[in-house]
Please model this.
Amino acid sequence: MKLLVLAGTGEARRLCQGLACLDVTASLAGVTRVPCDLGVPTRFGGFGGVDGLRTYLRTAAITHLIDATHPFAARITANAAQACAAEEVAHLILQRPGWQAQPGDQWHWVADLAEVPGLIPTAATVFLATGRQSLADLSGLAPQRVLARIIDQQSAAFPFEGGSYIFGTPPFTVEEEVAFFRTERIDWVVVKNAGGAASYSKLAAARHVGLPVAIQCRPALPAGVNVVETVESAQAWAGA
Ligand code: NAP
Model:
C-alpha cells in the first residue's frame, strides 16, 4: 500500500500521526504561511487540477488516497474523486460531522454566502468567521460594520468598505467569544458549517448572548465515495 493523505485540517494531522508506520505521503495546498509538521513526508502546492493529480498518483505509484481536507474544500475533493476513479486508486473521504442547531439557537441556513447581506439589517455589526477567501462573496455587506477574524496577519486593505480584520488563532473559549461579542457589540455572526469541537465555541457563545447566526450549508460530496467521520475509522480503513 502507498497512501496519499490530502491534508489541511486537524483531523488530517492526527490521521498522519497515526499512520506514520505506513508508507504515507501527505499533501498540503501550501496556503498557510507556517504549515504544521504532519510527522510524515509532505509535499506542498496544488497538483494542477484533475490531470495533474492523475499524473501524481501514477508517478508516485499511489494505491490509496484519504481525502481529509476541510468540508468546504470542494474543488480538491471533486478532483480527488475523479482522479482516483480514473486511476483505480482506493479512495476514502474523512469528514467530521456538521454542526446541528440546539434549542435556543437562531440559525439561518444559506446555500451561498452571497445570500447573507439580504438577511442582515444595514445598521448591524457583523462578525465573519468564514475565512479570508470568502470575503468576495460577502461584499454586499458593505453598509454594515464588519469584523472578519482570520489567522494569518494580513497587511492588504480589507476588500470592501466598512470592514476590518481581526487576527486570532483558534481555539477560543466560549467565555472569550462571549466577551468579544459584547465588547464589539456584535449583532450577527456568519459561519460555515465546518463542524468540529475546536471552532464550535462561537456558536455556543452566540446562543448564550442571543445572537442570530447565518450558517452556510456544506457543499455536496462526490457520489459513490466511501465517507467516514472519525480519524479512527480512517486509520482502520488504511489498516493501521
Ligand atoms: P479547494 O478550493 O478545494 O482547492 C483549491 C485548489 O487548491 C485545488 O484545486 C488544489 O489545486 C489545491 N489544493 C487544495 N487542497 C490541497 C491539498 N491538500 N494538497 C494539494 N493541493 C491542494 O480548497 P480550499 O478551500 O482553497 O482549501 C485549501 C486547503 O485549506 C485545503 O487543504 C483545506 O483542507 C484547507 N482549509 C480550507 C478551509 C475552507 O474553509 N475552505 C478551511 C480550513 C482549511 P490543484 O487543482 O492545482 O491541484
Observations:
- Residues 3-97+220-238 form a domain with the Rossmann fold fold (CATH 3.40.50.11190).
- The two ends are 11 Å apart (CA to CA).
- The pocket of NAP is lined by residues 6-9, 27-29, 31, 46-49, 52-53, 69-70, 72-76, 79, 131 (CB under 6 Å).
